[in-house]
């Protein structure tokens, strides 16, 4: 009976005590979260209740397994397995706690600052910091797991002895990866590009959706995703429309006839912009910027608060002006002129009449009959 009750008490007691402590801790966190609405820390810490319970259970079982006297022939293997579970759960718990602290700090910063550019900058830095923390904790946890095996501990001396050569080889082999990692840190803390920024890369217009230590994802206007190495943004030029203030100035061109009513087009542009909610009201203008033998180029300027609104304003102005010209001033649209050319004024004076008289006299002489000339 003792051989049966001892493992049952040890294992069952460890599991029951783990569930009890986990329930009590979760209850305290929920009460703290309900009491302190201004900070999401306590609610975020509840995400770590599973790794927290795993750490408790693994630690209790690892400490009391010898007393259970269960599966004596597999004691070493079970003890090492519990140690691996304890290390992995502890690493998982550390990552969850760090994520809760960092997320709480970012939330407080976002509430205190109303500048979207600064908030996006901090968000980018927080995201990359969490990735670095997760990577470091993961590497340390894997190394601790490997050190639990005697074979790896024995090989540690030889690995340290050859660390210099291996470091050189790894550095050469992973040159592009390391450059991307350093470029990711440079982007995060150099404020070059942030999550949510509107950028133009290789002629593609889109919004930065994700930034990691090695790659960056841009979501285009047609919902495609372009994934690029972060080293691209540190070595090549690109357009960042969200840098500084997000306000933008848009341009619309028309090619119209030389007789187009430019003053009336200015008034119509003002009317179209007043009816467009995306126009921010800062400025507008319309000017003739170029001419060709058949048309003249008219340019309209308008402003908006960001890149999305400037696109809406441009297409609205372009469509509204063309519709108005077609309905009210169809002669102003480009057309092929098939009318007779107007002669200059000096060609309608006496010299032109003399030329016509001489031409008429020569024609009449040429048509005289031979008999009349005799």
Query: Strand sequence of the main sheet, in spatial order?
Result: 4-3-2-1-5
Contiguous low-pLDDT stretches (5 residues minimum) are 168-175, 348-353, 361-374
How many whole angstroms does the radius of gyration measure? 40 Å
User: Could you give the order of the helices and strands?
Assistant: HHHHHHHHEEEEHEEHEEHHH
Sheet with the most strands, sense and barrel status: 5 strands, antiparallel
Mean pLDDT: 76
Strand content: 5-15%
Cα distance spanning the termini: 160 Å
Shape: elongated
Derived from helix and strand composition plus strand pairing, the structural class reads alpha+beta
Question: Helical percent range?
Answer: 55-70%
Please work out how many helical segments DSSP would assign. Answer: 13
Structure, explained:
The chain is α+β, with helices and mostly antiparallel strands and 374 residues long. Helices cover 61% and strands 15% of the residues. The chain has helices spanning 2-35, 41-45, 49-68, 75-112, 116-147, 150-161, 163-173, 175-190, 232-235, 262-274, 307-328, 350-366, 370-373; strands at residues 198-201, 204-211, 215-220, 225-229, 239-240, 248-256, 279-291, 296-304. The strands form 2 sheets. The chain has a 5-stranded antiparallel β-sheet with strand order 4-3-2-1-5. A 3-stranded antiparallel β-sheet has the order 6-8-7, covered by helices on one side. Helix 3 packs antiparallel against helix 4 (75-112) and helix 10 (262-274) crosses helix 11.
């Amino acid at each position: 009976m003792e051989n049966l009750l001892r493992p049952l008490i040890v294992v069952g007691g460890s599991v029951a005590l783990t569930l009890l402590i986990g329930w009590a801790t979760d209850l305290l966190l929920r009460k703290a979260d309900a009491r302190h609405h201004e900070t999401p820390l306590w609610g975020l810490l509840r995400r770590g209740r599973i790794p927290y319970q795993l750490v408790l259970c693994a630690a209790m079982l690892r400490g009391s397994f010898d007393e259970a006297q269960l599966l004596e022939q597999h004691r070493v293997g079970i003890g090492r397995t519990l140690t691996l579970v304890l290390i992995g759960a502890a690493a998982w718990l550390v990552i969850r706690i760090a994520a809760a602290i960092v997320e709480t700090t970012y939330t407080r910063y976002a509430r205190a600052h109303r500048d979207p550019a600064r908030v996006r900058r901090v968000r980018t830095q927080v995201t990359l910091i969490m990735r670095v923390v997760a990577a470091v904790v993961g590497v340390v946890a894997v190394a601790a797991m490997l050190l639990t095996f005697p074979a790896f501990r024995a090989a540690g001396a030889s690995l340290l002895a050859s660390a210099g050569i291996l470091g050189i080889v790894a550095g050469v082999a992973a040159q592009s990866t390391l450059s991307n990692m350093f470029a990711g840190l440079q982007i995060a803390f150099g404020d070059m590009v942030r999550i949510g920024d509107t950028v133009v890369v290789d002629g593609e217009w889109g919004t930065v959706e994700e930034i990691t230590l090695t790659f960056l994802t841009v979501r285009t206007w047609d919902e495609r995703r372009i994934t690029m190495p972060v080293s691209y943004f540190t070595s090549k030029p690109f357009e960042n429309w969200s840098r500084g203030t997000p306000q933008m100035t848009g341009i619309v061109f028309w090619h119209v006839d030389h007789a187009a009513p430019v003053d009336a087009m200015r008034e119509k542009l003002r009317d179209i912009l007043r009816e467009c909610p995306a126009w921010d009201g800062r400025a507008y203008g319309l000017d003739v910027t170029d001419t060709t033998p058949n048309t003249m180029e008219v340019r309209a300027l308008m402003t908006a608060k960001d890149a999305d609104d400037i696109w809406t304003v441009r297409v609205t102005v372009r469509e509204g002006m063309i519709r108005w010209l077609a309905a009210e001033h169809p002669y102003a649209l480009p057309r092929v002129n098939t009318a007779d050319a107007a002669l200059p004024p000096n060609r309608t004076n006496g010299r032109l009449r003399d030329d016509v008289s001489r031409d008429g006299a020569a024609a009449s002489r040429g048509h005289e009959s031979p008999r009349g000339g005799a």
